[in-house]
User: What shape does this take?
Amino acid sequence: RVIDRITEPFAVDVQQSIGQIRLGVSIGIAVIPEDGTDATVLLRNADAAMYRAKERGNHFVFFTEDINSMAIQRLVIEHGVRRALSRNEFRLYYQPIVNAAGEIESMEALARWDHPERGIISPAVFLDAVDDVGLTVPFGTWVLSVACRDLARIRKNSRPDLRVSVNLAPAQLDQPGIAEIIEKTLARHSLDGSALTLELTESAIMENPERSLRKIEAIRRLNPGVTIAIDDFGTGYSSLAYLTNYPVDGLKIDRTFVSRLSSESNAKVVNTIIDLGIILNLTIVAEGVETAEQLSTLVEHRCRLFQGYYFHRPAPLDEYESMVSVRPG
Ligand code: C2E
Ligand code: CA
Ligand code: CA
Assistant: This one.
């Protein structure tokens, strides 16, 4: 009942026009005496339960032991992540983006944490911690710089046309001088803008479309040739009006759509996204292609770039270097 009441929209008067605001609420619950008998323990446990509730959004969650171990894991990760940058424990993996013939046209840089005890850890596990400890910007700068360094080497050795895609976190886009940082990083590795695609998630852009627009324009102005792709397309809510006017060059169809291509209604959605992309002259990449059937359906729908386990898994650069040297015919 508390959640229902709090999430009811209410009207506000913003500069003489009435708007609606909706609050989100997540509740973590700890019970006396099972979950603790003093305030410190109870609050800590309620807080851990609240994190679980937040993941689902507008939910309440009772504390359990299982949550406790997740909270401990979270602390361990947060603690380690602070030192990971200075100790050089982050790595970049690359996943090729290929055409229907399997020829590599570009690659996406995907971060990994090479933890001294736990081995390779996925970004899904540590990126939130990076954000929580306020390291998103230095981490992102590191990713950009290593990706440019690696690409510069491949461009020099074998593939002057290859591009690299780098994921840009919302906090990086908001960072003052991001356009200049990109410019300097490219220059440091003697690369021009055509080397780089920046991937921004749809939800990050839509959080503040006007502000994102100004930032994207500044990046493009200072770095001619750099392209912008909307990542995880279809999972957020971008209006068509925005898409048609937005200075983006490409869309990446989220892998949840690709994985459900066998459903007819879902295939229609994918088909529509591709048609839309073609009309707007956007480069479309289908993510998470795992099977030959998915590939052939996508090809039928006129998609021409693919990324997924069916072709290649993300891997350290040396595993791809010989393969990458083959230029698309
Ligand atoms: P993303 O940008 O959507 O990246 C694609 C994710 O899908 C990668 O997960 C990749 O390993 C996975 N993937 C690729 N092909 C397949 C497939 O065929 N099947 C399945 N099931 N999965 C596939 P990964 O590397 O774990 O990265 C997860 C997310 O973390 C990325 O999603 C991206 O949002 C974020 N991320 C990764 N590296 C960075 C980074 O350097 N900076 C920022 N800001 N975010 C990053
Ligand atoms: Ca991406
Ligand atoms: Ca994606």
